[in-house]
Design goal:
Blueprint lengths: L6 H4 L13 E2 L11 H11 L13 H11 L6 E4 L1 H12 L6 E6 L4 H8 L3 E6 L8 H10 L4 E5 L11 H10 L4 E5 L20 E6 L12 E5 L1 H10 L7 H11 L2 H29 L4 E2 L6 E5 L3 H10 L2 E2 L1 E3 L2 E5 L3 H16 L1
Parallel strand pairs: 1-11, 3-4, 3-5, 5-6, 6-7
Antiparallel strand pairs: 2-8, 7-8, 9-10, 10-13, 12-13
The structure holds pyridoxal-5'-phosphate.
């Protein structure tokens, strides 16, 4: 007999984002704004003061307080993670038992089902309507039918770019009172239907936030979970104690203190997304090239097209990386110049 990987590992492959050099990267929904040189200098001065021989603060008090202040929530309800990705993993491993049913939805962020399966929960997938929206009543019935212990979805959604209004999300939370609702608001900075300010009212809700999108710090792995005190205590107890290193904690604390700067970047991204969307709609009107262009609540535009593979490859040949899904393309809003370049390349594709 020789050692064999178990069933859940044997077919796994390492995460494989686009690598190689492309002049324009619109594939990962990152912010198009790097931190300002002044802010980088400030960060460097703060990092110089870090005691590198000491373990970091387990509860990441400074970044947690900076986050709480930025979003107007109580720091007692906030847990910091090594990216929201780590928090998804911790939640899936600790709030469910092997064999419990967790409901995810399709299309949505793939990591939810990935971690749920890794921790041996049973994943049941609710299919969205043909127009890619969620019907809250149908999702509630589906969760009841499957006896779900948890339900997880992103709002606004990656990759569809569509959002579910606050009332609908409230209905899901209150109707499924014995189901844990994991609400990923990674893109809510770009929309206005957050439930952050009422998170404490619910005993079955965890909201996830990330620094990787509107905050412009994908390079620094920090995300946050916000929930009532009981859930927060459990999460803090379950996570690995030193999950946020001191350097990342320092950086995040400095950056989140710059609220005006961050909001002006956010506003520019929202404006850039609107014009990218209308430029793509205009192309569509001119060439009839897409089946549907979705009006985004996010920092990216989602497009339905049978030619997804060919367009994706053509853009790569033009040194522009976007994201493809079966039947769809997702284009992150970049700088004005980047958006103009992707529109010009698409026009070239449709006129060639
Ligand atoms: C990008 C993204 C995240 C962020 O993950 P991090 O680990 O914090 O970088 C979380 N959820 C969704 C839906 C995302 O698209």
């Amino acid at each position: 007999m020789s050692y064999k990987l178990n069933k859940k590992l044997v077919n796994l492959v390492p995460y494989d984002p686009i690598t190689g050099h492309y002049d324009i990267r619109l594939d990962a929904n990152e912010s198009c704004f790097d931190l300002s040189p002044e802010l980088k200098e400030k960060i460097c001065r703060s990092i110089a003061k870090v005691d590198f021989n000491r373990y970091p603060d387990c509860l990441a008090k400074r970044p947690t307080e900076a986050f709480a202040k930025f979003y107007g929530v109580s720091p007692e309800l906030v847990t910091a993670g090594n990216g929201s990705d780590e928090l998804i993993s911790v939640i899936m491993s600790c709030f469910f038992e092997a064999g419990d049913t967790v409901v995810n939805v399709s299309h949505d962020f793939s990591m939810y089902g990935f971690y749920a399966q890794l921790y041996e929960t049973k994943v049941e997938t609710y299919q969205k309507e043909a127009d890619l929206t969620i019907d809250p009543d149908k999702l509630i019935s589906f969760c009841r039918e499957k006896n779900a212990r948890g339900v997880v979805f992103s709002n606004p959604c990656n990759p569809t770019s569509l959002g579910l209004g606050r009332d609908a999300v409230r209905k899901i939370i209150t109707s499924l009172s014995d189901t844990l609702v994991i609400l990923d608001e990674a893109y809510m900075d770009f929309w206005d239907q957050s439930l952050l300010d009422e998170v404490e009212k619910y005993d079955n809700l965890i909201i996830l936030k990330t620094c990787s999108k509107a905050i412009g710090m994908a390079a620094v792995r920090v995300g946050f979970a916000i929930a009532n005190k009981t859930i927060t205590t459990a999460l803090r107890a379950a996570k690995s104690p030193y999950n946020n290193d001191s350097v990342a904690q320092t950086i995040v604390s400095e950056v989140l203190a710059e609220k005006d700067y961050l909001l002006s970047c956010r506003d520019a991204i929202v404006a850039g997304t609107k014009s990218l969307y209308s430029d793509i709609k205009a192309l569509d009107a001119k060439y009839g090239c897409f089946e549907k262009v979705y009006e985004p609540c996010t920092n990216f535009v989602y497009i339905k097209t049978d030619e997804f593979q060919k367009i994706y490859e053509f853009l790569l040949e033009n040194s522009i990386a976007i994201r493809k899904f079966s039947g769809y393309l997702r284009i992150t809003a970049g700088s004005k110049k980047e958006n103009a370049a992707v529109i010009a390349a698409l026009e070239k594709y449709f006129t060639k």
